[in-house]
Amino acid sequence: MTAHPSSNRYGHVVRTHLSFDAALERAREALKAEGFGVLCEIDVAATLHDKLGQSFRPYRILGACNPHLAHQAIEIEPQLGLLLPCNVVVQEIEGHATVSVVDATAMLGFVGNDRLNPIAAEASARLDRVLARFTE
């Protein structure tokens, strides 16, 4: 499978040739393999349909958390829960599943606490490996 990776200031994106459902399942499996649990799953299309009567493309937000890393970070910065969990987005764009992961280094860099840097780097490395599973 050929995937097309890209990045922006707050995350990394890969466009796949997988179906939406296959990409969603692979994302869940990859997160689990990297020690993340999915705390919540938001079906944006269903929410927009239910609340606004609007149709929208398949779009899910997986709120992922690595308990070990989250615990370390919250011990250092008690209000950090405002920036958690680490989100992974699976959406369908032009018939292809696109998977995005947050850049934890950029997100936690916003806090300005250097003690979070190693935790952010570890979270980012794990999330990058999640995304790499779409380029294999």
Number of strands: 6
State the secondary-structure class: alpha+beta
Alpha-carbon distance between the two ends:
7 Å
CATH homologous superfamily heading: TT1751-like domain
Tell me the Rg in angstroms.
15 Å
Helix-residue proportion: 40-55%
How many domain regions? 1
**The CATH topology is what?**
TATA-Binding Protein
Q: What's the architecture, going by CATH?
A: 2-Layer Sandwich
- Proportion of residues in β-strands: 25-35%
Low-pLDDT ranges: none
Number of helices: 5
Kindly summarize this structure in a few lines.
This protein has helices at 20-33, 44-52, 67-76, 104-109, 117-132, and strands spanning 4-7, 11-15, 37-43, 59-65, 86-93, 96-102. It has 136 residues and is of the alpha+beta class. It is globular and about 40 Å long.
If you had to describe this structure to a student in words, what would you say it looks like?
The protein has 136 residues and is of the alpha+beta class. It has a single domain, classed as TATA-Binding Protein, CATH 3.30.310. The protein contains 5 helices and 6 strands; from the N terminus they run E-E-H-E-H-E-H-E-E-H-H. It has a 6-stranded antiparallel β-sheet with strand order 1-2-6-5-4-3. Strand 5 (86-93) and strand 6 (96-102) form a beta hairpin. Helix 1 (20-33) crosses helix 5. The longest helix has 16 residues, at 117-132. The chain is globular, with a radius of gyration of 15 Å. The termini are close together.
